[in-house]
């Protein structure tokens, strides 16, 4: 009953925002700052340092959009949103863009009137336990206490998985990853469940990461995607094609280091269009010729962003996997720039 009321309130907020859909591009330009909704604190994806400077995989998408629209990746106001407040924050206009490891699902796309601008991380739900618990499979968690963020697809997947496998569990409800980490470390739950990328990021922050195991089962598909309000198609196009520019840049070998040289010397028509050397794709979305070039310069192409924040050489240590380019066996695939 509570969930029905919660989702109904969200839908009403979304409908009201859609009915009065504004020109987000003009609002952002007039404000001179992009309001970007992010995770309150998930190292590798979005987290502030001791000086309040934000960094992470999702943060770099915010920077890319700001660079494309405002010409400066630093013109971003980061708005921390929990799993329960993220969609109302977007629908109400508190943020212009939600870049907060959120799963693209049917009800969120349709009932909440959100538009997802392409998948920026292909993920799946998993479980983490202490190594000394001796558990090697989720099938051994029957009767376990499990820390779970409320208002998430994770919560629903957990219920489905245990029901399908004839198992029981005791949920320990949490509002944020920080609270989940605290409860898990305090022994309030036997296991912590969320997206595997989130588990890896959480484990990396522990003083003893080697004493915690991410179990092998992946129980769901979690296509994580940035979202905008339904009804402002041009703004959605800007975010979608900014993400595509980062993905395409990696495919075509455009990096933050060689971008100026390629703009002068590349004979690849696609590269020339992306960098604004030929054609004027920016005019189609209310931007100038070099919008995509600036987006790529902000933090690098998709591969550079992945490697710097969550890749195998970072404490989080994630392999590219499904997030590799389509030419390398992954699912990343940018639509043509033409």
From TrEMBL:
Signal peptide annotation: 1-21
Record GO biological process: amino acid transport
Q: Which residues form a coiled coil?
A: none
* Protein name (record): Amino acid ABC transporter substrate-binding protein
Question: Which SUPFAM superfamilies does the protein's record reference?
Answer: Periplasmic binding protein-like II
Q: Per its UniProt record, what SMART domains does this chain match?
A: PBPb
Keywords on record: Signal, Transport
Solute-binding protein family 3/N-terminal domain: from which residue to which, for each copy?
A: 33-262
For this protein's source organism, the top of the classification is: Bacteria, Pseudomonadati, Pseudomonadota, Alphaproteobacteria, Rhodobacterales
- Tell me which family the UniProt entry assigns to this protein: Belongs to the bacterial solute-binding protein 3 family.
| UniProt xrefs under CDD domains | PBP2_BztA
What Pfam families does the record point to? SBP_bac_3
